[in-house]
Specification:
Layout: H1 2-39, H2 46-79, H3 94-99, H4 107-110
Helix pairs in contact: 1-2
Bound molecules: zinc ion (ZN).
Zinc ion (ZN) binds at residues 85, 87-88, 90, 105-106, 108-109.
Length: 112
């Protein structure tokens, strides 16, 4: 199971790196929008900037959720419940865990 923990920690690190990236991108978009507001209050690009900001916020939200999923998986690993579906308490197939190490549920419960 040490191998699984290593994979999970690696995924967590990658996700956090990505989160830092989206944060920096968002700051750049916000800074650009401030300059534009100074230039022209009714700049047609405002909508684009708002859209980009929403997109980056959504992306950051997704990454945060992924980190939470990985944390929960690491927690289950520590408690010895890793690989057991959190809903039906049946074993999660090894192939599913291999494809998605942070999977909390079996395929049946996930598709419900
Ligand atoms: Zn299940």
């Amino acid at each position: 199971m040490d191998e699984v923990a290593a994979v999970l920690r690696e995924r967590r690190r990658e996700a956090l790196e990505r989160l830092a990236g989206t944060g920096a991108e968002r700051d750049a978009v916000v800074a650009a929008s401030r300059e534009q507001v100074a230039d022209d209050e009714h700049d047609p690009e405002d909508a684009t900037i708002a859209y980009e900001r929403r997109l980056l916020d959504a992306l950051a939200h997704d990454v945060r959720e992924r980190v939470a999923e990985v944390d929960a998986a690491l927690d289950r690993l520590e408690r010895g419940t890793y690989g057991t579906c959190t809903r039906c308490h049946r074993p999660v197939p090894v192939e599913r865990l291999r494809a998605l190490p942070s999977a909390a549920t079996c395929v049946t419960c996930a598709s419900r």
